[in-house]
User: Fold this.
Amino acid sequence: MTPEREKARARGTATEWMATAWLFAKGYRILARQFRARGGELDIVALTPYWRTPCTIVFVEVRARGTIEQAIESVTAAKRYRVEKAAAQFCGRRPKLAKLPRRFDLVVLARTGWPRHLVDAWRS
Assistant:
């Protein structure tokens, strides 16, 4: 692996940890991180806070770019498809969770400012 690729991977891991901490602080229960499936990966899988009903399984894509707008635009239709495919595999391996409603969120980070959590960023 090239040094540039190693730096990018380290930044991505750090970004995912920040997003995980952000969601945890908001009351989300983290079920998995970096779940790898055939054809895709899920950055974070969580359950909505217990005080929100109905309990929903949330598949979170994490993006960090120079600006919030660039981060949002970087989630292409192909990326959404891969996340949805991985989510289906995650639920297939956990039948009890498969019965819950699901949603796809996006946590974006820019060079400055706080993370931004976009709830229900797209529909499958």
Q: What stands out?
A: Helices lie at 3-25, 68-73, 77-93, 95-98. The beta strands are 29-37, 40-47, 57-64, 102-109, 116-122.
